[in-house]
Every structure is written in structure tokens, then in C-alpha cells.
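Thread: "does anyone have the structure for this chain?"

Original post by V.I.:
We have the sequence but no experimental structure in hand. Need at least a predicted one for the grant figures.
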Amino acid sequence: MYASAFRKLVADFMTIGENIALAFIAIWSNLLRAVLTLLIIAFGIMALVGILTSIDAIKSSMSNNLASMGTNTFNVIRKGTGLGGGKHGRRRKVGEKISFKQAMSFKKQYYFPATVSVSALGSTSSVVKFKKTETDPTTTIYGVDHNYLSVAGYELETGRNVTEAESKEGRNLAILGASIVSKLFPNYSPSSVIGKSITIRNIHYHIIGVLKEKGSSMTFSGDKMIIIPLQTLRKYFGSQTNSYNITVMVADALSIDPAMAEAEGVFRRIRKVYLGEESDFEMEKSDGLISLIVDNTATLQMAAIFIGLITLLGAAIGLMNIMLVSVTERTREIGICKSLGATRRTIMVQFLVEAVVICQIGGLLGIILGIFAGNWVTFMVGGAFVIPWAWIILGFTLCFIVGVISGLYPAIKASNLDPIEALRHE
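Reply from O.Q.:
Generated one for you, C-alpha cells below.
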């Protein structure tokens, strides 16, 4: 019994192998038509895999950058400026900016056992110079206090951090991101740039540290950032600072909810928000931002899958039309096969395998193009290269389904042909 079952299994594999070989012969005999058909499928799969790959890569990059801050940090920010500010397409009213005085008052009055950092954005379009070498006008200038590096998840490659005294005094010091160092000092090691002087808006800054490479997320890159003391930022970039950011890091994740509750109470008192009124500021947790990213990208992924399915539906109609033409052209061949003993099942499987093979070739080409297209978009926004195994499997599965659906009716039509009438066909 087992021997006969094994022989049947081997025979089935041999039959499938023969059908695949016949499919390639049929494709080669009508190469232009087959290529045009599989290209339609390839572009549909490329659009699907490309969009999903870029979404995955961007999501991964943003999640990694937020996760580096840890689950025990949260930010107090201006209302309406967080990632949830425009949720469901509705832009909320932007609240009053957080002033330097309010931020420093919070730092003094917040007695919860936590580390508090105050920081602010000075510019995102500065040009930094070292002798005759300069960066592109895309450098971010960020003002921080001595706690910023630890709460924001940055590490030093070499050099030292800004001290509390230097942050308050406003000395002209700078900590450079990895990309800034490679641009301005291509022939220097990171440790050898310590002590050198750079120029921003004709103001000289003494380099005291270099950050470890952190990577990018969307349009922001920590490697293209220069950190200066907070008072220095106020001195030279104060007019461009819209609002100050407050970041709080507690000892462990279990303490974050009571820490946020106390922070809200302290800052409501500082902002003079009365009992019963809605807070005019927001608090965001890093893991909350990750969840928001995942939720939003899930919607985009479903939309991309729907668009890809519509494209593949068009490809399926085109492939079915081609297979029907192929049945008509090979009617006499089918009649000869049936007269020699080929069964209906054999004829049907032959044409069905041919449709599936065309779809899988198109799918393979589309997946390769989609991976490169998706990662090209990811590279443009500063994300990391990813191989989307889940979407690769989805692509091959969809191509198989499209092949079966498109080839089923032509295959049944071919298998139902009368051998005598087929032999008379010219």
C-alpha cells in the first residue's frame, strides 16, 4: 500500500515537472505576448511590495529611534504639535508655546524622583563651516542642558557632555553628529576633531564631543545635528525658537504613570490652567508614539494591499484573455493529445500550470523590483534597508491565486474540446 502511494506521488511530481517544462516551451513560442502579460503582473506586484516595503522600513526606523529613548521617558510639549496632532485628518488647534521661563520653572518645581531635561530647536537649515569646507544647509542646531543626552538616548563616540555650568553660562561649545564629522573632517578620526573650532553664522564654536552614529527617521537625522548649550541657543537662535521641550526620564517603566500625573499637575499650575479646563499642553510617551505609528501604518498597509489587488485584477483579466487566445491557437494540438490518450485532467492541468508559471515569473520580477523601489524610497527618507519576507510570501501567494483564477476557465474550455472537432480545426 505504501509502495503504491509512493509511486503515485513520484508520478504526480513527474507530471507537474513535465507540465512546467511544456509551459516554458509555450511561453517561449509566444515570447512577446507572454512578456507583455507577465510585465502587467510584475508592475502590480512591484507597486504592492514596493509600498509595503517602504512603509515597513520607515516604521522600523522610527520605532527604533523612539525605542532608543526607552519606555521610561515622556515629553511635555506644546499642544497640537505631537504625532497625534492631525489624527484622522483633523488638525487640532495649536496651543500656546512653552516659554523658557515655564520650562525652567517646571524643572525646579517637579519633585518626582526623575531626570528632567529642557531643550529647544534653533534651526534646521544651518550651514556649518570648518576652514573652507562646509555642510549642506540642512544641519539641525539643537540647544540642550546637561541631562539631554541621557534622557534622549544619545551616546558619545568621543569627547564629553556639556556641564550644568556651561549650559547656564551659554559658552560657545558644540557636540557634533556623526554625519557632520564625516562631512567637515573627512580625513580625521573622531577623537582628533576634539578641540577644533567650527563656524555657524560667523560665530565660532569649540568642539567638545562627537555623538555615536544613531541613524535617521523620516526627515530627521540625529547624525546631522549639532548640540550646543541651551543658553547659547537662546543667545544666537532665540528669535527662531518656537517652543521649549521638556523630557522626563524616570527610574523604571512602572513609575511612568504617576510621574506623568504629577508632571501634568505641576505644569497646569505653572501655565495657570484652572480646575475643569482642558490642559493647553500635551504629554507623550515614547512607547505611545510607537503604538501610534503602528496603528497609522496598518491603515496605509491595508490601502496598499487594496490598490495592489485592483492592479492584479486587471492583470488577471489580461492573462485570462491571453490564455483563451492560446487555447484557440492550440486547438488542433489539443485534439492530437486527446487522440493519443490524454485525459481531460491532463489537458486542464497543462493549461492551468502554464497560467501559474506566467504569473509566478511576473511575480518574481515584481517582487525584486518592489524591494528595490521600496528601499530606494526608504533610503531617500533616511531609513534602513529591509527584506520584507512577509510581503514576498504574500506576493507569491497572490500570483499563485491569480494564476489559478485566470487559467481555470481557459483550462476547462481546453479540456472539454471534442477531439474529433479539434483535429478538424485549421
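V.I.: this helps a lot. The first strand starts at residue 73 and ends at 78.
O.Q.: and The first helix runs from residue 2 to 29.
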